[in-house]
Design brief:
Elements: H1 19-24, H2 26-37, E1 40-45, E2 48-53, H3 56-65, E3 70-71, H4 79-85, H5 94-104, H6 110-114, H7 117-128, E4 136-138, H8 139-156, H9 161-180, H10 186-191, H11 195-221, H12 228-234, H13 245-276, H14 278-292, H15 306-318, E5 325-329, E6 333-335, E7 338-340, E8 345-348, H16 350-353, H17 397-414, E9 415-419, E10 427-429, E11 433-435, E12 440-445
Parallel strand pairs: 2-8
Antiparallel strand pairs: 1-2, 3-5, 4-12, 5-8, 6-7, 9-12, 10-11
């Protein structure tokens, strides 16, 4: 056991600690302090001490080996997070979480989610039908609307554009509230009736009404429409009990908001990276021509779309939508030889770890081929963790990977996406890693293979 009471870290301000420097540039600040202070460092936000872990072995100890000693961090128990996600898989703990995970898991069985592949491709094709040669579009917005439509269809079997417009507006409003959680007034926005908090409350009520109405209609009809909600409604625990309407609401809200947002971002950053790397794009097109020959992709093609899969992996490495993960010590324990007191906040950042030169050669380079290198097979499992890990690994990770590869293959065959000149594409780390001002791209049609229309 180390004799040190706590790890080293930047000194910070007397009252606000390290918060001012962190807020100014979260990603840059984290890169700087982790390189300066090593694999375990200490930060302080007002009176809350936070440890940051940058070693894959230490991250594994928290997420896997000693996961029983940790719960979700403090911010996940704030009224804001609870208002959105309730007591769903993202926020719940202990036996209740285990029960909910057990009930929800069958909905994401590989054979089950494969049925949704057709929906993903069909909706991508519908989006492409609205695109025109040489027009400029915000690709982040396009991907958000597309994944939102896919989420509503696969969750609820609903494809009304009115619902998509409502959900898009509300989810964007919620993201604005996430930004306020990083401000010095975050406590006020959680516990006081500020204008932002009141607006947030109205948005949640609208989302709740939408979801509860669908749950009520489905319970009344008893119809199994083959969607995720049907699976959750039918799920029974070992004692025969099912989810209540409130439990269903919390799980659906978690899957809906967290699911479509992160998938849209994975695709958005992928288009940005491809526009900057024509060699990678050319290799992708060669694979698509070999595997698909111009036809639309199917789920059966996924095993052959190896380079497309590597592109998504590499995009998730450089621009992980879930850019930060955290835990709180539920009891006294130990990390890396340091005593961790109960209640300590512990964080680890894929944004930082995925760029560690000890794990990745030329880590700032977008090089999908790295995933075919033999030495990558020896990569520590928690040097790359875009979906977290351990018992609480993202339940929808296979769904998300399938969706990103199928959508990538569908669009890349039809269009080349060129970045509009003289714009600043800036990562914006709120709840997820968004492009602050979108990603505007010019659409350039490719020659259409005859089988695409067949």
């Amino acid at each position: 056991m180390s004799t040190a009471i706590h790890p080293n870290g930047p000194k910070g301000h007397l009252i606000r600690g390290n918060l001012p420097e962190y807020i100014e540039d979260p990603l840059g600040y984290l890169m700087n302090v982790t390189r300066q202070f090593g694999d375990v460092l200490r930060l302080r936000f007002f009176n809350i001490p936070v440890w940051v872990l940058n070693n894959p072995e230490y991250i594994e100890s928290v997420l896997v080996t000693n996961n029983r000693y940790f719960i979700k961090p403090l911010d996940f128990r704030m009224p804001f997070f609870r208002g959105i996600f309730g007591n769903g898989l993202l926020t719940s703990e202990g036996d209740f979480w285990l029960r909910q995970r057990r009930l929800a898991q069958p909905a994401f069985h590989r054979n089950r989610i494969a049925e949704y592949g057709r929906v993903m491709v069909e909706y991508a094709e519908q989006m492409l039908a609205t695109w025109q040669e040489a027009e400029a579009r915000d690709m982040h917005r396009e991907m958000m609307v597309l994944t939102l439509r896919i989420a509503i269809k696969t969750l609820f079997s609903v494809d009304a554009d009115r619902d998509v417009a409502l959900m898009s507006t509300l989810s964007n409003d919620l993201i604005g509230m996430f930004e306020l959680q990083e401000s010095p007034l975050w406590l006020a926005h959680n516990y006081l009736p500020t204008p932002a908090n009141r607006r947030f409350g109205r948005g949640i009520k609208q989302l709740d009404q939408y979801i509860y109405d669908i749950i009520g209609q489905r319970r009344q009809s008893g119809e199994d429409t083959g969607d995720l909600l049907s699976m959750l409604l039918d799920a029974r625990d070992e004692d025969g009990s099912r989810m209540t309407d409130k439990q269903l609401r919390d799980e659906v809200m978690t899957l809906f908001l967290a699911g479509h947002e992160t998938t849209a971002l994975a695709l958005s950053w992928t288009w940005y990276l491809l526009s900057q790397h024509p060699r990678v794009e050319a290799s992708l097109l060669a694979e698509l021509e070999t595997v698909l020959g111009g036809r639309v992709p199917r789920v059966d093609d996924l095993s052959e779309l190896k380079y497309a899969d590597a592109i998504i992996k590499e995009s998730l490495r450089l621009y992980p939508p879930a850019w930060a993960f955290g835990r709180q010590a539920a009891q006294d324990c130990e990390i890396a030889g340091y005593s961790v007191p109960k209640g300590r906040q512990v964080y680890f950042f894929p944004w930082v770890v995925h760029r560690d030169p000890r794990c990745f050669d030329s880590p700032e380079e977008f090089r999908p081929e790295r995933w075919f290198d033999e030495k990558m097979k020896q990569l520590h499992k928690y040097a790359y963790f875009p979906f977290s890990g351990g018992p609480r690994v993202c339940i929808g990770n296979s769904f998300a990977v399938m969706e990103t590869v199928l959508v990538l293959a569908t669009i890349a065959q039809r269009y080349r996406l060129k970045l509009v000149p003289n714009q600043t594409v800036e990562p914006w780390p709120v709840f997820t890693l968004r492009p602050r001002n979108g990603i505007r791209m010019v659409l350039e049609k490719r020659a259409v293979h005859s089988s695409l229309s067949g």
